[in-house]
């Protein structure tokens, strides 16, 4: 509702100082009058066209952002920028779409494995191999079933792109979440390559809580593998036998965001139960405490001991009560938001906001929230330094977000 009120406001005052951007957004997301773009001159000769459906987001820190709706997707879950500036958008039912940075859908990727869709799970994340430009390898996560039991899997494939989509071939199994469970909860399944080329996989507790401390299953863990799925010999439990050789850290609940900072440090965010969402600095071999400790409480309202009652578990860099439900994470490195360099930006689902957190190495401090009353599923930094988000749900929009001025 407020979206359309803000539109006219933005059109009237479209002052903006970034050159060379923005053609009008895809037609399907544009109100009837929207092919009329406003062009405003800003301090002399810099001009920028803003689509008429752009709107303002006012942060809790007073900073005003401009959001440009670029397109709309059906339950989008993840996006990944390609070296050529286009992006891939994953939809939960099992589609990967090739999209320009202005939101035009060029086509779909063929050969994508069929994903089960169960509760929170479906076709999920995609990560480019660090040498993607040469080997065209990508890694995907999705859900498979065995009877009425579900679990996440990660596979690699070769992505042959064309101007109108492409095809995924040579698919190989990299990892299987185990054991499979008869619920559709807490698959997590986000993917990240670190600076040394190791593949990190977030594996949620599948709603069972205690699996996060069980060393005989890979639920509730961060997983670290070589790019072919084999076990690195410097993993914390390497050489001890069994599935624990995959683990990098344990005691996680529903880690839906993972990112690396400029120093190569890995950060992860996860949903707590009723409150207790966490942003964690990930350290090799550490136990993050779920479900023994949490700053939240169970849905039954039974309290759980807080993190500060136990120094044998790693304390979060910052936790939230009430919940923001972080569903994605980046560490910002661009120049468009110069003051935000090194900050964590988290997409909040129930929080309906981008949550900005400054990091001092060990601890995090929430600096601001930027909300437009939509659930944020995925956040990425574009090659242009702008922030791109995917809203959650069946009409989730792709938005490009830049500072107002
Ligand atoms: Ca992504």
TrEMBL record:
SUPFAM superfamilies: Soluble quinoprotein glucose dehydrogenase (SSF50952)
PROSITE patterns, sorted: PROKAR_LIPOPROTEIN
Keyword Signal annotated: yes
Keyword Signal appears in the UniProt entry: yes
Signal peptide segment: 1-19
A Pfam family of this chain: GSDH
Protein name: Glucose sorbosone dehydrogenase
Occurrences of domain Glucose/Sorbosone dehydrogenase (ranges): 73-400
Matches recorded under InterPro entries: 6-blade_b-propeller_TolB-like, Glc/Sorbosone_DH, Quinoprot_gluc/sorb_DH_b-prop
Alphabetical UniProt keywords: Signal
